[in-house]
Amino acid sequence: MDGNAAAAEAFRLARVQVVAAYPITPQSPIAEDLAKFVVKGTLDAKYIRVESEHTAMSCCIGAALAGTRVCTATASVGLALMHEMLGVASGLRLPIVMGVVNRALVAPWSLWCDHSDTMAERDTGWLQLYAEDPQEVLDLTLIGYRVAEHTSVLLPIMVCQDGFFVSHTGCAVEVPEQKLVDEFVGPYVAANLKLDPDEVMFVNPLTMSNDYTELKYQHNVGMANSEPVLEEVLEEFGKKFGRTYHRVEFYRCEDAEEVVVTMGSMSGTAVYTVDQMRAEGQKVGAVKIVSFRPFPIRLLQERLSHVPRIAVLERATSIGSAGGPVLCEVRSALANMPIAVSGFVAGLGGRDVTPTTIKKVFDLLRTAPPETLPTWVDVREDAMTIREFVVDREVLV
Amino acid sequence: MQKHVVTEKRYLLGPVGVTFAAAKTGSWRVERPVQDPEKCSACGLCAKYCPAGLLAVNKADHHVTFDLEYCKGCGVCMNVCAQHSITMQPERDFV
Amino acid sequence: MQMEELKEHQDIASWGVSTCQGCGLENAFRTVVNVLGPKTVVVIPPGCSATFSGVGAETCVQIPGYQCNLENAAASAAGIRAGLDVLGRTDVNVLAWAGDGATIDIGLQALSGVMERGDRIIYCCYDNEAYMNTGIQASGSTPFAGVTTTTPGGKPTYRKDFMQIVAAHRIPYAATCSIAYVEDMKKKVERAMTCGGTAFLYILAPCPTGWFYGSERTIELARLAVQTSSWPLYEIVNGTEYRVTQKISRPKPVSDYMKPQGRFSKMTEEEMSIFQQRVDKDYALLLKRAEA
């Protein structure tokens, strides 16, 4: 099963009640699978065949307010189109779970993987989990509903998977039994804001400056609460289904001198590369961030304080900033420690991140003087001259 | 078994209106409607067309009451009255 | 009636709402929600009707409501409808209550999607013919020659014929309404409630503030709009059957309706005459469709 199929299956197992999804490469199979499930009767839900992603999120918000469990999925510019409504979903404390198949934003047009789409939404107050493979997509989606719907959290959550690398790559996936999923996720009962003639309230009116801060503070508390809740739910999932995940996965870091931090599918390549380098006697390790929001500050501080040099390798940039999104977070978390944190950009627009790339990162980390700005480690030297344009013009001499 | 009303209290999170309220729009008025029952035919058009639905027409004595706490003094009631039973008079005459 | 009795009859919408004096939408909203009753969820985008949503902890409606975004009233309502239906609350009405800007311009896509899918909501567009709440800017529904802050010389183009856009979607029920014809409007709300699919009600809401007339003339203008056949009252069933609900055998000249409004003060006699021809033509077309 590939990542798309895993996402759709997870939504089906979670017994979502309303689906509102709009097709976009590489996510379309999720929208299609869910439609098939509904028609076949293996998912008892209302399927709203929306005419845009903005409407998809608007419908999810409406259905969640009515008191039902909902889902949607998107990618790239579809997520960008939803942007306006993402803040509404999180500000209204709605436990919407959305699958995002990471694909580069425009311009230039690309169909392929990078993290620019979800990174552009990192300040919308949503939780963000990054899956490395189809199994993680399925599992994190189920975990997502438990965390999102927890009464001390009540926040929407994006479960992200790399476009094509995960969404379209098949691997063996253990699909949990419906009975066990029912026990784990349970039914959804709306307990906060809702639209019910028996409990009348008006949701989302204008808020003056005397209350706005307090409402955002509540939101902030919810996000802070999601850290321990996520820990508990991950542990419970491990006990029940036999696969234990962590908010951050540390691989061979205990005695590492250099560590590379990644998210998504390239984390698997990082582990593979670390093993190769270890076999050659190099003391290296790999860190995979699963929970990007909430960012696991304390966990990184506790487990990496002894590592002298850390490389953050990401499939995203923050052009004009002091570093990419993940680099800035890691640097902030480790600010008061004697650790040199260097940033590296690679894999934009679907470019493969190979063991060669990762070895180059370790090499630069070890040998190059530390810099503030990230290094574009896989950029070609002829970057400025790749589009030669010739025009013949008549000139009078 | 008797029916009891139980009051549950909880704190909602997020922006939400929980109290039904009315602004004192009567304070906006610069003129107020005054009605002459003698001219009134109790047709009820004034009550039907008041934007805020604040009028009540007494079919027995042709007396129209206006809720002056909320009446904005728009004058629609005067305008729709075919009998010219309602006139708008300066609010300051009544202060 | 005594004041206390008056207060007992407090209807779904509060009496103290911050709409302008003589606001046409206020009357329309009260009429529609009182027909729909308390088992109704209302979706209100930003705009003049957001005065009913309220501010902070206070709201001006006694039914559940949600203030959506400017362009997604229809989409939000569709989501609510789906959720309520899943929970078995098919008896609860879902009402989207949006202005012309939120419907005809920025909200067109969402409404078109809802109509194509046949989502069972009642969509009411109250048309005050401009973005009034933000200060009288022109919308796709501002009439020809209308003066607004973004068309200070008068709007050079005609408004969208929105009922034709709705008709193209072949929804079970669409109708125009005027607040001067309350019984007609009430009947149309009832038909909208029971049509079994998407219903669209298009309600003219004269606006003293943006149309520049004395606030007392709101109903008078709402009536003149119909009597001049500038805003004919009719229904379209399934996109093809037309029914005129208020027959005007000899329409008054449109200038009767337009001259009292300051927003048409820049209109020349020639423009008025061209506009009259257009109104006559449109009305003749409507009557022809109704005969068919």
What does this structure look like?
- By secondary structure, chain A is an alpha/beta fold.
- Helices cover 39% and strands 16% of the residues of chain A.
- Chain A has a 7-stranded mixed β-sheet with strand order 2-1-3-4-6-5-11, sandwiched between helices.
- Chain A is globular, with a radius of gyration of 22 Å.
- The longest helix of chain B has 5 residues, at 45-49.
- Chain C is of the alpha/beta class.
- Chain C has one domain: Rossmann fold.
- Chain C has helices spanning 3-8, 24-36, 50-53, 73-86, 100-105, 108-117, 162-167, 182-194, 208-211, 218-227, 254-258, 269-291, and strands at residues 40-44, 58-59, 65-67, 93-99, 122-127, 173-178, 199-204, 234-237, 241-244.
- An 8-stranded mixed β-sheet of chain C has the order 3-1-4-5-7-6-8-9, with helices on both faces.
- In chain C, a hairpin with a 3-residue loop joins strand 8 (234-237) and strand 9 (241-244).
- The A-C interface holds A 17-18, 20, 45-46, 48-52, 54-55, 58-68, 70, 84-85, 88, 194-197, 199-208, 210-211 and C 38-41, 43, 50, 53-57, 59, 61-69, 71-72, 75-87, 89, 92, 109-110, 112-113, 116-117, 119.
Number of helices of chain B: 2
Query: What name does the CATH topology of the largest domain in chain A carry?
Result: Rossmann fold
Subunit arrangement of the protein: heterotrimer
The number of domains of chain B: 1
Q: Round the mean pLDDT of chain A to the nearest integer and report it.
A: 97
